[in-house]
Amino acid sequence: MGVVRFSIVTAFPEYFDAFLNTSIVGRAVKEGKIEIDIVNLRDYAINSYGQIDDYSYGGGGMVIRPEPLYNALKSIKSEKSFVVYTSPQGVVFNQDTVEALAAKDHVILICGHYEGIDERFAEKCVDLEISIGDYVLTGGELPAMVIVDAVSRLVPGVVGRGEAVLEDSFYRGMLDHPHYTRPSVWCGLEVPEELVSGDHEKTARWRRRQAVVRTLKRRPDLLARANIRPYLSQGVYVMLVHHPVLNKDGKTVTSAVTGLDLHDISRSCMTYGINKFIVVTPLKSQQEMVCKIVNHWEKAPEGLNPMRSEALSLLKAFDSIEDCLAWIEKKEKKKPLTVATTAKKRAGALPVFELKRILLERDLPVCILFGTSWGLADEVFSGVDVVLSPILGGKGDYNHLSVRSAVAILLDRLFGWR
Questions:
Q1: DSSP bridge pairs for 34
Q2: Could you tell me if 312 and 263 are in contact, meaning their C-beta atoms sit under 8 angstroms apart?
Q3: CA 58 to CA 68: how far, in whole Å?
Q4: What amino acid positions are annotated as catalytic residues?
Q5: Distance of alpha carbon 409 from alpha carbon 386, whole angstroms
Q6: pLDDT at 178
Q7: CB within 8 A of 185, min separation 6: which ones?
Q8: What CA–CA distance (Å, rounded) separates 400 from 154?
Q9: Kindly report the CA angle at 413 between 408 and 414, in degrees rounded to 5?
Q10: Residue 368, marked binder
C-alpha cells in the first residue's frame, strides 16, 4: 500500500485545522504517509456572493447546488479517484468499508450540509454514500474526519506499533480485549493477575478469552462475520465418515474412499486451521490407500507442490467414529463436542451462527462429522451433541453438494476472515 490521498470538499474548511495538525493523523500528514487536500467549495460558488446553495424544490431547507460541487470535483478528480458522499442515508461505515477505501489511490470526500446535496450530482458523480451511524449531524465534516482517521490507521507506519491495528476491535471481526495500565491497584480494583504474571502465553490466552466474553455479551451479532478459530483454545477436527452412511435406498452401507476427497478436503482443512482430517472406514484396504497417498506425498520428488504434502499430513484413518472420538479425547484431555452435518432437514438442527456461539462459550475440542454417499446414517445423529442445518443456496429446493464443497463452505462460514 502506497501513500493514500484524500481530498475533502467542504464549505467549511476551518473545521479541519486542528484535525490536520494534531495526533496520529497530523503526524502522518507531516511525515508524508498520507496526503489530505482541503477543497473550499465556496471557491466554486455560482456568483460573487459565494452562493453554493438554494431552496429545496417542493419546500424544506437549503440544498447544496450541483454546479459548485461538479466544478470542484472536476478540478481534483482523476481516473483513479473514488468519490464518497457522507450522508445519513448511505451504507453504514464498518471495518470492511475501511479496508476497501484503504485500497484506493485517491478518495474524494464530499461533505454535505443543510438538507444535503442535489440528488442529480449524487447520481452522476458519487461512487458510494457512507453513513457513520443512524443519526443526523449538521454537516458531513465530522463523518469525513472519521473516515480519514479509520482508513489512515491501515496505512503502514501511521500507527507506531503495527500489531496494535491487528488487535483493534472489528479488525478480526471480534471486539477487542480490555486494557489496563498503572497503578496495578486503583480504588480497590486490581489488574488481572494474567497481565502482570510476565507469562506472555498466559496473557495471550487471557486476552483471547476476554475478547470472546466481551463479544458474546455486547455484540453477539458480530459472530456471523468473525473467524472464531484464533479464539478456540482446543483442537478442531474434521471427520469424513464412510461408515455408517446411507445409500440411495436408505440402507446403511460402507462407501468407498476417493483420492479427490482426500486431496481437496485436506487442503481446505489446512487453509482453515484444522488440527486433523480424519477418515473413518472399517475396510483395511481403504485405510491402506489413505496411508499410501500420504506416504507418496511425504516422499514426493522435487517439483511437486510441497503445500499438497503439508495438507495431506493432516490425514489419519480410524476404523470407527467411536475409536476416533476416543483418540481425540485422549489427545485433548477433554471430551470433544460432536457436530453432525446433513443435507436433509432434521428437527432441532442449528444454524452455523448458533454453533459459533456454542463453540466460543464452551471452548471444547470439536469434531465435525461429514457423511459420504447419501449422508450419515440415522444412528449417528442420536449420538452427537449438535446437528447443523443444511447448507442452502439461492435455489433452495436443490441441495446436492459434493462433500468436498460442503466441507469448504462450512469451514469458511466458521473460520473464514469475513
A1: 4
A2: yes
A3: 22
A4: 88, 115, 153, 168
A5: 18
A6: 93
A7: 191
A8: 41
A9: 100
A10: no
d(CA 297, CA 293): 6
| pLDDT confidence of residue 1 | 56
Dihedral, 109, 114, 119, 124 alpha carbons, nearest 10:
-20
Which positions ≥6 away from 297 have C-beta within 8 Å? Answer: 304, 308, 309, 312
Please give the sequence-ordered ranges of beta strands (E in DSSP) within 352-392, or none if there are none.
Answer: 366-371, 386-387
Whole-number Å distance between alpha carbons of 118 and 112:
10
pLDDT in tens, 6-59: 999 999 999 999 999 998 999 999 999 999 999 999 999 999 999 999 999 999
All three cell numbers of 286, joined, read 481403504
In order of 10, 344, 373, 390, the CA distances from 400 in angstroms are 55, 10, 11, 10
> Please, where are the H alpha helices in 9-118?
23-30, 66-76, 95-102
CA distance 71 to 258: 64
Q: Which amino acid is at 135?
A: Y
Grid coordinates representing 374? 447419501
The ranges of the chain with pLDDT < 50 are 169
Contact (Cβ atoms closer than 8 angstroms) between residue 147 and residue 121: no
- The enclosing H or E element of 144 equals helix 141-152
Check whether 397 is labelled as a binding-site residue. Answer: no
Q: pTM here?
A: 0.84
Measured torsion, CA atoms of residues 43, 47, 50, 56, in degrees rounded to the nearest 10 = -110
**134 labeled binding residue:** yes
Backbone angles phi, psi at 226, to 5 degrees: -90, 145
Helix (H, G, I), strand (E, B) or coil at 140: coil
Residues in the chain: 418
pLDDT at position 164: 52
Strand 315-318 versus strand 276-280 pairing type: parallel
Please count the other Cβ atoms lying within 10 Å of the Cβ belonging to residue 31.
10
pLDDT of residue 397: 77
CA distance 24 to 26: 6
Residue 264: all three cell numbers together: 481437496
What's the grid cell of residue 130? Answer: 457512507
State which amino acid sits at residue 299: K
Select from 4, 232, 246, 230 the least CA-distant residue to 106: 4
C-alpha cell at position 261: 476427497
DSSP letter at 388? B
Residue 190 contacts residue 178 (beta carbons within 8 Å):
no
Within the chain, what is the greatest distance between any pair of CA atoms? 90
